[in-house]
Design goal:
CATH topology of the largest domain: Restriction Endonuclease
Helix content: 40-55%
Strand content: 5-15%
Distance between the termini: 56 Å
Number of strands: 9
Structural class: alpha/beta
Strand order of the largest sheet: 3-4-5-8-9
Mean pLDDT: 75
Radius of gyration: 28 Å
Number of helices: 15
Order of helices and strands: EEHHHHHHHHHHHEEEEEHHEHEH
Number of domains: 3
Largest sheet: 5 strands, mixed
Length: about 425
């Protein structure tokens, strides 16, 4: 927490991680120094600040964030220091004056990150800064697996040494030794959370994040492969096994819908994250679609977000846009789709026109028939445009597309339709 002297403070919450905050002074006191404080300035912070600059709604906030960008720089080594904290505090205050709650919170998270109070991975997850992290060379899940296994390897070696030195040890002595060693390992993980980490060759942020996951976020459950196999065999022998398997599939799909709802409810979610989630659940668009085409680029300039293929080989183009966007506007006595929707429809119509013209090549090359292809634009959510009634929004979208080959749906309409379909399947 910064000392505020007589500069005034704004309490944005506790200083415990992301989405919380710290006490932000109107102006950092000139007496504050950074000799004993490490200020972090790296590519993650630079990228985050650039994204926030694009979201600024007022010229004043935009200018303050631009000053932060200018100070950090575009290339390594990135500049930090006391001036970075001052510029961030100024931007937060300007965002507060302009009543921009999102940027107040986001810039506070940036300040917490620079101070080492927020971790890189939590920042990336909350603001969807790196939707392709799981496709990179850094496999955090595999690292967690190795770290989780490592105490067991050490315990085995120590147990061998214990038994060699205590050849007459009883089973109770052995159990006590194991209990003491495992308790020590757990204390080691929790004791180091706020300090320095030297046990593994890994960046401090990587290690701190992994320790946080291991200490607080992972639930350990017992599993027995033989028991699971026996249970599966028993289910297959039941006379109503088909009903049970169908119920399992319905449960799985309901979980997928819940996960999609969570992604859509995050106002920072980008198109890439929506695409990665929805491409694993093509059933949500209806049972008539047999599969997703393995190739998204069917012709130059027509890279489709989600190319669904019906059982008869006919293509259906799905274009995914963000949920957090405006999709309708007032027009005379009613409402009509705005330019965000019209531009997306035109994009899909251009795709369909190109696919029609290159039908012979696409059929011969990929076995997909685009001649009778239709399209769907997924865009918006009523929660992000509360000034308009949900039913009125849906009606305006339907009126725009009823005579064309392209439909428009909000993510809420898609999710609600999927839930109704699964309810019928369950019954």
């Amino acid at each position: 927490m910064f000392a505020s002297e007589d500069h005034g403070e704004h309490d944005l919450g506790s200083a415990d991680g992301l989405g919380s905050g710290i006490v932000i002074p109107r102006r950092l006191p000139l007496s504050i120094g950074c000799n004993n404080m490490h200020i972090l300035s790296d590519s993650v912070l630079a990228h985050f600040i650039r994204e926030l600059h694009e979201k600024a709604k007022s010229d004043e906030v935009s200018e303050d964030i631009f000053q932060v960008m200018e100070h950090i720089g575009e290339w390594s080594p990135y500049r930090g220091g006391r001036k970075l904290l001052q510029l961030l505090a100024d931007a937060i205050e300007t965002a507060r004056i302009n009543n921009d709650k999102f940027l107040v919170e986001a810039l506070t998270d940036a300040l917490n990150y620079a101070n080492g109070k927020a971790l890189e991975y939590d920042l990336e997850i909350k603001y969807d800064l790196n939707p392709y992290r799981d496709k990179g060379n850094f496999d955090i899940a595999r690292i967690i697996e190795h770290i989780a296994m490592y105490p067991g390897v050490l315990l085995k070696e120590e147990l061998y040494e214990f038994l060699n030195e205590n050849t007459h040890a009883s089973p109770e002595d052995t159990r006590r030794f194991i209990s003491e060693r495992t308790a020590k390992n757990l204390n080691f993980v929790r004791a180091r959370r706020a300090g320095y980490y030297g046990a593994f060759r890994m960046r401090t942020h990587d290690f701190a994040w992994v320790q946080d996951v291991l200490a607080d976020r992972i639930e350990l459950v017992e599993s027995n492969d033989s028991e699971i196999e026996s249970m599966a065999d028993a289910i297959l022998q039941l006379p109503d096994r088909d009903l049970i398997l169908q119920a399992i599939e319905v449960r799985k799909r309901l979980d997928q819908i819940t996960e999609l709802e969570h992604i859509v409810s995050n106002p920072n979610t980008k198109e890439e994250s929506l695409q990665r989630k929805i491409q694993g659940m093509p059933w949500i668009f209806g049972g008539r679609y047999a599969r997703i085409a393995t190739r998204r680029l069917l012709w130059q300039g027509t890279q489709v977000d989600l190319p669904l293929v019906r059982a008869d080989g006919v293509l259906h183009v799905v274009e995914l846009k963000v949920a957090n966007t405006q999709i309708v506007k007032k027009y005379r006595s009613g409402i009509v789709p705005n330019s965000n929707v019209n531009d997306a429809i035109s994009q899909v119509e251009n795709y369909l026109r190109t696919l029609d013209e290159e039908r012979s090549y696409i059929v011969d090359t990929y076995g997909i028939d685009p001649r009778r292809a239709r399209g769907t634009v997924m865009i918006g959510h009523p929660d992000y445009q509360e000034d308009f009634d949900e039913a009125a929004i849906n009606e305006a979208l339907r009126n725009r597309t009823y005579i064309g080959r392209v439909d428009v749906m909000t993510y809420k309409e898609l999710i609600d339709s999927a839930r109704r379909s699964l309810a019928l399947d369950s019954n």
